[in-house]
Amino acid sequence: MAKPKGIADHLAEFVGNEIDCPVCLEVYDEPKCLPNCAHNVCVKCLKNLAKRNRKKRIIQCPECRVKSTIPPCGVTGFPTNHLLKRLIENSPEKKERRAFDEALKQYREEINGMKEQLETLTTLRSNVIEGSKRRMKDQIRAEAKRLTKMIEEEQKRLLSQVDEAFGEKVTKNQFEKKYDEVKQLYAKVSTSLETADKITDEHDWKTFQKSKGIFEEQFQGNFKTLGATVANLRTLQWTTGAKFNPGNLTKSGKILGEIYCDETQPMRNGRVIRHIDTDFVPTALTVSPLTGEIAVLDAESRCVHVYTSTGDHHKQFDIKYGDLREIAYTKNNDIVVLNQERNRLLHFDKDGAFIHKFVQAPNASVRFQKMVMGGDGRYVLTSSSEASGPGVVVYDAERRHKMAFTSDHFKGNNLAAIHYKDKFYVADCTSTIKIFDNKGKFLQETKSLGGKTIKLLSLVVDSLHENLVCASENTILVIKTDGNVVSSFPMGGHLNAIAVSKGCNSLVACFHEKKFFQILSHKE
After folding, report:
1. CB 430 within 8 A of CB 410
2. Pairing mode, if any, of strands 433-436 and 442-445?
3. Which residues on adjacent β-strands are paired with residue 516?
4. Are strands 366-373 and 58-60 parallel, antiparallel or unpaired?
5. 272, 315, 274: which is closest to 293 by C-alpha?
């Protein structure tokens, strides 16, 4: 049985109905009472009404049309409704907004305190690493003094290994992993706090309450986790994994010794660096060339999810309509999505705000299939056409149509194309890659990359190592631009899409009908 409403509830309802200006529908900032009808209008709206009738000193009530004479000093001379103003100041909405502003102030003070702790940890970490490097180099130099000049080259080798041992590529020990986790949590909490100002600007009361509740629950949970992680980090023994082991030439064959690190593992092709579970089936994905963020397309729900370069979910945004198939980052870090139903590309900024739709096909018979971005910002799309068959369509970075070509060498109807170093490389669901010059003229066809069982479905560029990375249904191949295979490794499922990370040191892949994607190693 519902609880009967009390006086406070009725008053809250009354106040809620009476504190909005009848013109702008916003909560009164300075309610003015019209003397001839006693209706209230905010001073800003009264000024706008007065401007429309400058010659007459009369203003008409927007609710009852009763006219009132404007005071000599202007609309500000109308009496202020102080009772209504006090009701507004003491309304539940105003009170809760003030309370939330105070809470935000406290949150900012707390996060600033955590920032100071993180800076202290950063300085301490740097001192430990530099001190360890210094002591280890001193050990090596002291050992070298006992030996003759013939070991000088060995000394240089070891000093170089010290720097490598403390470099970015070395597998991190438990403390370093926890330290990275603290930095990521801090960044996440700080970012969420920066978005809180949008909540305070929300005019709709119900939306404000809902957003505020979600924000506070997430912020407090994340901040609590951050505090616990920092506390745990302080309890760990802060040591480095690298050690110097003086050599014994008769036993080890190393004159001075060697550098080794704890917890090191060799990098293997296809090794899963991170497995990221999702609550949707990723249809396509792409990596930002500027930030390394991973944008994943959920075609079924028409939603784009953005993850950090390490695979943590960062944000998402919805797309209102269309049969969505492909996704790519531009060189300016905007996100482009192929709407196959309308046969056009949709452009969004990095926060998911719709910018414009553009790039329609050259003619009605051409249907876009796949899309990639070249390093120079050009759009490379593959297409099908009833009139001319499969082909490649190219637009420049300003979205101007530059060229299109097809070829009798295409064996299949589903193409995938990339542009690299003034050449186009096209896969056509066979085991070879067709190579064209900058004008679309056929140059050569590579040798078979795996026999008839291999059907190449997509291509990406590893510009750092000057390789092409190709995906078939369940195999990834790394090849040189002349078609020689560098390496290949089978995958555990049917590949939907692949992308190369920002630093070209890993791959990102999603799979057919699987609710996850993976970050993989593809280096030797």
Report:
1. no
2. antiparallel
3. 277
4. unpaired
5. 315
Q: How far apart are CA 500 and CA 466, in angstroms?
A: 12
Q: Residue 16 carries which side chain, given as an amino acid letter?
A: G
C-alpha distance from residue 43 to each of 51, 385, 523 (Å): 12, 63, 68
Rg (CA), the chain: 32
Confidence of residue 318 (pLDDT cuts 50, 70, 90): very high
Which residues, at least 6 apart from 114, have a Cβ–Cβ distance to it below 8 Å? 186, 189, 223, 226, 227, 230
Question: Beta strands 242-246 and 257-261: pairing type?
Answer: antiparallel
Give the span between the Cα atoms of 189 and 143, in whole angstroms. 48
Token duo for residue 46: 């009264």
d(CA 349, CA 332): 9
Q: Three-state SS for 327?
A: strand
pLDDT in tens, 230-251: 777 776 655 566 676 666 555 4
Domains 10-89 and 272-520 share a fold: no
CATH architecture, range 10-89 = 2-Layer Sandwich (3.30)
Sequence-ordered list of residues with C-beta below 8 angstroms from that of 155, at least 6 positions apart, any chain: 140, 141, 144, 256
Burial-class residue 430 by CB neighbours within 10 Å (0-12, 13-18, 19+).
middle
Q: Tokens for 229?
A: 């992680």
Task: Give the E-state strand segments of 169-302 in sequence order.
Answer: 242-246, 257-261, 272-277, 284-287, 294-298
Instruction: In the chain, count H helices and then E strands.
Output: 9, 30
In sequence order, which residues have a C-beta less than 8 Å from that of residue 302 and are 6 or more positions away? Answer: 318, 319, 320, 321, 322, 324
The amino acid that residue 199 corresponds to is I
| CA atoms of 419 and 37, how far apart (whole Å) | 73
Domain 272-520 falls in which CATH fold? Neuraminidase (2.120.10)
Residue type, 248: N
Supply the pLDDT for residue 304.
94
> What are the tens digits of pLDDT across the range 264-288?
333 345 678 888 899 999 999 999 9
Question: Domain ranges in the chain?
Answer: 10-89, 109-261, 272-520
Q: Which two tokens stand for residue 237?
A: 């023994």
Nearby residues of 288 by Cβ (< 8 Å), 6 or more positions away? 294, 295, 329, 333, 502
Give the separation between CA 403 and CA 60, rounded to whole angstroms. 63
Read off φ and ψ for residue 65, nearest 5 degrees: 70, 10
CA distance 450 to 473: 12
Output the pLDDT for position 266.
31
Residue 296 CA to residue 273 CA, distance in Å, equals 18
Residue 51: enclosing H or E segment and its boundaries?
Answer: helix 43-51
